[in-house]
Design a protein that fits this description.
There is one protein chain. Helix content is about 85%, strand content about 0%. It has 3 helices and no strands.
């Protein structure tokens, strides 16, 4: 719950920090999960 709130704030403040935090918090197991997270973040940025 707290981690999700941190990720929400980081996504708006610092995308690199967001991805780094998310990779640890969500325990990414391989590069494909990492890439999917990046794609979602880039898609959200297009909507802004």
């Amino acid at each position: 719950m707290i981690g999700e709130k941190v990720m929400d704030k980081l996504a708006n403040l610092d995308e690199v920090a967001y991805v780094r935090f998310a990779s640890v918090y969500r325990q990414f197991k391989d590069i494909n999960v990492f890439v999917e997270e990046l794609k979602e973040l880039m898609e959200k940025n297009k909507e802004r």
